[in-house]
Amino acid sequence: MRLAATGDAALAANTDDAAFRVRAHRVVAQLNSCHEDNYYVGNALLSWGGAPDEGSDLLKRAMGCRTWDEYVPFFYGFNELFFHRNPVEARRAFEIAAERSMTNSATFRRMAIMIAVDEFDDQRLALEYLLKERDGASDPRLREMLDKRVQRLKGLLILRDAQHRYETQFGRQLKDPAALINSGVLVRFPDDPLAIGYAFDNGRFILHKLRIAGLER
């Protein structure tokens, strides 16, 4: 079930719309995916802008050639866990990151262990990561794009927190997102500044994916 992509409908016409992301990915794909700026910016715009499959493909290619770079497998592993719910592949990627790192090895291995025991708070770490990237961006346009992705993720956290409150209060699993409004747990669904929307799939709120024709897996 997909929730309506609330927010300003005019967003579809601005430079952060689907067409821009398609162009951005195709440009990156034609360049050297092993270049740090290409995979770093490409992943930020794609994975957090509704195209996580394409973002992960970009990282997977970079991981194969940037064999010294610990952050490529970290980003890839995070995508696999957060977007694709694939803890096995995520753990493998974090182990690779740990093997490559001289300073963060213990941290990456701890993350792999946390996945194994199902104690990895991926959504909170995702927000922390995006906030750090946004605040550290020197390009105003990139900062603006990342800020929209921060707000989008905050909307997801609002939905997941509301679901937890609903299920705790009423003692039953949420079946229909509309029950959050009808019960008063939420006054309104959060806006998505990218106008892509959220989805309720298998009893869990997720970021709705943007399908890019010709670039699907």
In short:
By secondary structure, the protein is mainly alpha-helical.
Descriptive terms for the model:
59% helix, two-stranded antiparallel ribbon, 9 helices
The biggest sheet amounts to:
2 strands, antiparallel
Please report the distance between the alpha carbons of the first and last residues.
22 Å
Q: What is the radius of gyration computed over CA atoms, rounded to a whole number of angstroms?
A: 18 Å
Q: Hey, roughly how much beta strand do the residues contain?
A: under 5%
Query: What is the N-to-C succession of helices and strands?
Result: HHHHHHHHHEE
Backbone shape: globular
Kindly state the mean pLDDT as a whole number?
81
Which runs of at least 5 residues are low in confidence (pLDDT < 50)? 4-15, 212-217
Number of helices: 9
Total strand segments: 2
Main structural class: mainly alpha
What proportion of the residues is helical, as a percent range?
55-70%
Tally of separate domains: 1
**Strand ordering within the main sheet:** 1-2
Textual characterization of the structure:
The protein has 217 residues and is mostly helical. The chain has one domain. The protein has nine helices and two strands. The chain has helices spanning 18-30, 36-47, 52-65, 71-82, 87-100, 105-116, 122-136, 140-170, 178-182, and strands spanning 198-201, 204-207. It has a two-stranded antiparallel sheet. Helix 1 (18-30) runs antiparallel to helix 2 and helix 3 packs antiparallel against helix 4. The chain is globular.
SSE layout and pairing:
Elements: H1 18-30, H2 36-47, H3 52-65, H4 71-82, H5 87-100, H6 105-116, H7 122-136, H8 140-170, H9 178-182, E1 198-201, E2 204-207
Antiparallel strand pairs: 1-2
Helix pairs in contact: 1-2, 2-3, 3-4, 4-5, 5-6, 7-8
